[in-house]
Amino acid sequence: MKSFKLLKIPVYFLILSLILTVAGCGKKLQKAENKPVKKIPVVAVRKVERGHISQILNTVGESVPIEIAKISSTVEGPIVFCPWREGDRIVSGQKLIEIDRETLKAEVKASEAALFVAQAKLADMKAGTRPEEIERIRQSLNEAKETMQFEKLDYERIKELVKAGALPGEQEEKARLRFVAAQAKVNSLNEQLKMLEQGYTATAIAVQEAAIKEAQARLDLAKARLKESVINAPFNGVITKVFVRPGDLAELRKPLLEITNLSSQVVRCSIPEQYLSKVKIGLPARIQFDAFGEKWFPASVSRIFPDLDPQLRTKTIELVLREMIQISPNMFARIQLILETVKDANIAPEQAILTLPGGKEVVFVVENQRAVQKSVETGIREGEKVQIISGLFAGEKVVVAGQEKLKDKAEVKVAGEDDKKVPIKK
Asked: What's the whole-model pTM score?
């Protein structure tokens, strides 16, 4: 028993020694596991491409018809013709409105009669005097001469009697007046006969011709006023508003109809002042209407208004569509103005561009599993694409995700080689 107990003691020491040894090894393994392992950042890359890129200004506007007319009346009267409803199509020259004006019709007839009389009188003057009229004046002249001779003899007889005291002096004055009147009539008939024998003078004929022109002007004026009672369409279009019906009274300068030429529509929008130097006539654009879904229609700038809005600092422009489509007035339009286009440019994703505090722009390019920082000069932007003027070449792989904490020449791991499957951080 004693020897067994002595044998037990070394065994205890051996077990204790093993336990301490195992404990010491466990601490070493635990320290090894707690030591930090260096992690390689994972990044997504895209290739710099070669292609065309455009600077696009996005804005909004609306469709506006250029040819639009509010038809008003210049005369008053009851409306006897107006069969139109909104949406009716009309052609240029077609009758739109008729106003009853009987007094104007009577004025036209009276003016026509006055013109006819003036023309007939001129015709007689140019045709010359008829022989029977000259003979009639000669007979009247002979009778007037005989009367004048009788009055002359009577005046001389009475004058002698008054001188002798046989008659009062007033009888002499009366006889003298009768003789003067007879003499004046003879002189007048002499002048008439002379004028008839010589014909009408050029001055008399010119005066009558002027009278004809005056009569013609009065007739034209009457017809013009009558014509105003019938209103015709100024251009092809559509009736958009109707303000009166047959039986209504047309009033001066009051609207009757509104017509619009739908094919004359343009799109108007406002451009900020800082882009005006790039907006020119003919500048290409794209327009989208809600009525046509997401389709973009080609267009171009057709007009630039001269005035600048002093409050908004914008200028109005007009665009015309290059494709004929049926649009309505005042339709909402989304517009893209293509201010500038570079056809052969190095293009990088916008996510790859980092702006440093001083304003410097840089990118990280993956070369031999390391992210190399490069300074770049950028140009125009289109959506998520950026033109690279200098600093990169087509085909280089730029980091588009995971570059926020990268340092120059840091070791990186590319998350997939297929660029199309690389998730891009937005």
From this structure: 0.56
